[in-house]
Design a protein that fits this description.
Elements: H1 3-8, H2 24-35, E1 38-48, H3 53-67, E2 78-81, E3 86-92, H4 98-117, E4 121-129, E5 135-141, E6 146-150, E7 152-153, E8 158-159, H5 161-170
Antiparallel strand pairs: 1-3, 1-4, 2-3, 4-5, 5-6, 7-8
């Protein structure tokens, strides 16, 4: 960052660090112990829509990578598009196996990034729920290299902001939390929420 950038208040963009995703298993332990939220076994990757043969090939390659795990018998990837035009790749694991879920989400991100689709990556989610069936997602913002909690309320597009701030305070030692609350974008229509 140069002198003029500092003077004008411009900041250097944070480099994406997909290895931050590997902090999610310890965050899951903290969430369960402190707030009663347990993983649902669903994780997803959101990206700007991509069309064409190159993207179809990447999707097949990711599926082949996950299918190669013979111990689990292969994990199918669900592809979908939300009401806002964003594409999602979703994987499921047993709820108690968050390590495998995080590995799958990381593999999808890495495959998209390494084949030139990194600029289309938006975020990744790992979903949780508590005894009252309140949904919660820990959202990794690809372009910021940080996480934030997203807690939608039932019955429309409303958020439980108090719960999100409570989760933020709990996970400060486990994950790199996005401090700029204006970057905590809602992910309405995300798979599993």
């Amino acid at each position: 960052m140069g002198f003029l950038d500092a003077l004008l208040g411009r900041t250097k963009p944070v480099k994406p660090d997909l290895d931050q995703l590997f902090g999610l298993p310890s965050a899951a332990i903290t969430l369960e112990a402190a707030a009663g939220f347990k993983p649902t076994g669903t994780g997803s990757v959101c990206f700007s829509s991509a069309e064409g043969g190159a993207f179809a090939q990447v999707q097949q390659d990711v599926q082949a990578l996950l299918d190669a795990d013979t111990e689990r018998g292969g994990i199918p990837i669900e592809s979908s598009r939300d009401d806002y035009g964003y594409s999602w790749m979703t994987v499921h694991q047993p709820p108690e196996d968050i390590v495998s879920l995080v590995n799958d989400v990381h593999a999808i991100n890495s495959a998209l990034e390494s084949t030139g689709f990194g600029p289309q990556l938006l975020c990744s989610l790992v979903n949780f729920t508590d005894a009252q069936n309140r949904p919660l997602a820990l959202v990794y913002i690809y372009k910021r290299g940080s996480f934030y909690p997203f807690a939608p309320k039932p019955g429309g597009e409303r958020r439980d902001n108090a719960l999100e701030l409570e989760i933020k305070a709990m996970l400060g030692n486990d994950l790199r939390i996005e401090q700029d609350l204006t970057r905590w974008f809602p992910v309405w229509g995300a798979p599993g929420l």
